[in-house]
Design a protein that fits this description.
With 522 residues, the chain is of the alpha+beta class. The chain has helices at residues 9-17, 64-80, 90-93, 127-130, 144-159, 162-180, 188-210, 214-246, 254-261, 264-268, 272-283, 310-318, 320-325, 328-332, 346-359, 364-370, 375-387, 409-412, 414-422, 428-435, 439-449, 451-460, 474-486, 491-498, 502-516; strands at residues 24-27, 30-35, 40-45, 52-55, 103-105, 113-117, 122-125, 142-143, 286-292, 300-306, 337-341. It has five domains: 9-80, no CATH class; 90-161 and 261-341, no CATH class; 188-246; 346-391 and 407-460, no CATH class; 474-516, Arc Repressor Mutant, subunit A. The chain is 54% helix and 10% strand. The strands form four sheets. A four-stranded mixed β-sheet has the order 5-9-10-11. Strands 6-7-8 form a three-stranded antiparallel β-sheet.
Amino acid sequence: MDGWDGWSGTAVRKLLWSPTAIGVFVWNKTRREYDWEQEKTVKIRNPHSEWEVRYDRKLAIVPMERWRAARRKLAAMRRASPLTGRKPSRNQVSSTTLFSGTLFCEYCGEELKLIRSTEKYKQLGCFNGLARAHECKLAASKSVRIVEECLLAYLHDAIITDSQIEALVAKANADLESEAQKPQVNTAPLKAKIRKLETTIKKLVVLIEEEPDETLCVAYNHRVKELQKELNTLLTKVRDAVAVKKRALKPLSVKKAKEYLSRFREILKQDIPAAAAAIRTLTGPIKIRQEPIPGRKDSNRWIATFSPDLFQLLRGMAGDELRTSLPPGERADQRPLEVVIDKIPKYERLAPEFKRLHESGVSIQTIAASNGMAWKYAADIIHFAETGERPKWGARKEKTGTGHDNSEKYKEIADEVARLRDEEKMTFPRIAKAFGVHEATTRRAYDHARPQAVREAAATGDTPNRGTYSHLPQDIFKTIRELLLEGKMTAAEIAAKAGCSANTVYRVRRKMKSESGEAPAA
């Protein structure tokens, strides 16, 4: 409206409900008086006879019939809203979480509130359900983090699609281009006025120093303060104008926009009350019920039911194009949606992918190594994916009887294992014997230090390339290379001096010729 994008849905609804939209203005509807009992000023509504009404047809912004139709539609929306007649709660006025004042119990209708609120741990629940009051069945509570992650994930996937991101980036770049084409601020008049004020202030300071009359000195001092305030204002304007001149308006890329939107929850948390109000307008009231989780004893998950007005948001983002492309019936259809709110175990999230990799021929060891876990864990996850039987993992023992945590042993030796394998060409059994661990631990340590190999193997279904090995020490190969470079001894003499076979000398010589670009000997 008028090229300004600061209008909100609430502001437009208030504007259309008000008679000012048709040119009717009313004054003296209320008055303020001090209430001595409450010890505060209160607003009192005046009788209609005292109202001052003015009607000016020229000031009307919408036709009378359209205004009446809008009033009828707004009245119907108010009657249908479950919040009609209910005063805004404290959570709706000043939200502390992104969904404060938006979640309601489906059984008793009460607003879900924080039943636990610490710096790290916050949980939402229904107080009636916890107390078994009013026949409320919502006895489970959920972490605020889980609630926000599940609901925001749906809103993110449903609204912030690739096409919408591209459209928003294009609009943002167009605005940046328009901003860059605006004429630069001319700071010359401001600087001239600054110089004049500085000169005047210096003259007044000299007069104060030379004036013996104290009364005149006070007057001069007041004038200096006034001029100094004006000077400070001008200096700020010049500084802002220079900053605008130096600002580089670079276009925004789709890749950068997606990077910003990947931190969707963190961005919303920068202003929780404003974000909560926007989410509440988009989703409307969200009703929560609970249902048991199959296969998990005494565990319940929440089911959120709401009717988001996605078309209203998309119309605001796409303008008239979306309004003309959708039939009126489809725009008004707002079917209730259901979103599961529950913490999904890691093994349950990984199960489909592990099953796919295993069926494509990737070994369990490769799958485990590419995800930084033990072979048994990967095997249990694959078993769950195939049978539905949940793993029965016992409590993890953090430390052994000696007070040392062996579960992270492979991480401690990872760098040294990778060096021995890549530089010394040692076999994994020899490395395991040197560290006093199992051979599988050394392989896991190598995969931890060189994760790229197992990731590529998991993607292609091949065996990971964990480097080459040699049963001979690297000192022997170093001696063979030095003697071959000298060129004074035969292969048999070099083998006898290095303590290896002649075939080893021939292999090293062929490799050296290949590295230098010469044709290897037949």
